[in-house]
Write a structure and sequence with these properties.
The protein is elongated, with a radius of gyration of 25 Å. Helix content is 38%, strand content 22%. It has a 5-stranded mixed β-sheet, sandwiched between helices. Strands 8-5-9 form a 3-stranded antiparallel β-sheet, with helices on one face. Strands 6-7 form a two-stranded parallel sheet. It has 8 helices and 10 strands. By secondary structure, the chain is α/β, with parallel strands linked by helices. The longest helix is centred in the N-terminal third of the chain and has 37 residues. It comes from Tardiphaga alba. This is LysR substrate-binding domain-containing protein.
Length: 246
């Protein structure tokens, strides 16, 4: 049987440790509060924050959809924004970390679950195959591909389901690099149909399977209540391909 003194000593240490953890947690919360207060009073920080109506609205958008934003008619609601463009998973993380006010990404993986109640609209977007004018591939030869992490699974599954062989010639997180690889004339890629532009052309070939439309999700942070944020969300929701709010 354990000595009662040893037992009491352990209980005392456990209690002391619990108190220390509680104290540290309280100190941590206090430091975070002070840091937010200091930052909010810093004029340099206010340039990048959307806490005030005259500050830029921080938009996080998938690189694949960047032309979607750039090609939008110039409106005053989109004149004062700060844009972060990256792969979908990083945009979702930035949104979850409160680094952006608005997120616009493709509905893949667990993105819908992470955005949760902050999801305000969604719409379908059509995809098409693209090639350079110099591209050609022999009948039944493996299809050379340029892929991007968010769309790779979609493309490979479509080809596998169609019984077509393929080889990935290029892959990487930089969406622009994927298009550069296609312009080389050595591979094909899948892009939003609205974004197909010269010098690339849509590849129409019976060998290529149709890529089903995908959902695009638009989310805004629940605590982003400024008029600027609401106006930007309204503008993004009015894109030609946008559907009704959810």
């Amino acid at each position: 049987m354990e000595d009662s003194k040893d037992l009491n000593g352990r209980e005392a240490l456990a209690e002391s440790g619990a108190l220390m953890s509680a104290d540290l947690a309280a100190i941590g919360r206090r430091l975070i509060g002070l840091a937010h207060q200091a930052l909010s009073q810093n004029p340099h920080y206010s340039r990048y924050s959307s806490d005030t109506d005259d500050a830029p609205v921080r938009i996080g958008i998938s690189s694949m959809l960047l032309s979607f934003l750039v090609d939008h008619p110039a409106e005053t609601t989109l004149a004062n924004v700060s844009v972060t463009s990256d792969i979908c998973s990083k945009i979702v993380k930035a949104f979850d970390d409160d680094d952006v006010d608005v997120a616009m990404v493709m509905d893949v993986k667990d993105h819908r679950a992470i955005l949760g109640d902050d999801l305000v609209a969604e719409f379908d977007i059509e995809f098409g195959w693209v090639r350079s004018t110099a591209f050609s591939v022999e009948m039944d030869a493996p299809i050379p591909l340029a892929t991007w992490p968010p769309d790779q699974h979609i493309i490979l599954k479509a080809l596998s389901d169609a019984g077509r062989s393929y080889k990935v010639m290029f892959t990487g997180p930089d969406y622009a690099s994927k298009l550069t690889a296609v312009r080389s004339g050595r591979c094909l890629a899948v892009v939003p149909r609205h974004a197909i532009a010269s010098p690339l052309v849509e590849a129409r070939d019976d060998q290529l399977p149709t890529i089903a439309p995908k959902k695009i999700l638009l989310a805004v942070r629940g605590d982003s209540s400024s008029t600027r944020v609401r106006d930007v969300v309204s503008a993004l929701s009015s894109f030609p391909l946008a559907g009704p709010s959810v």
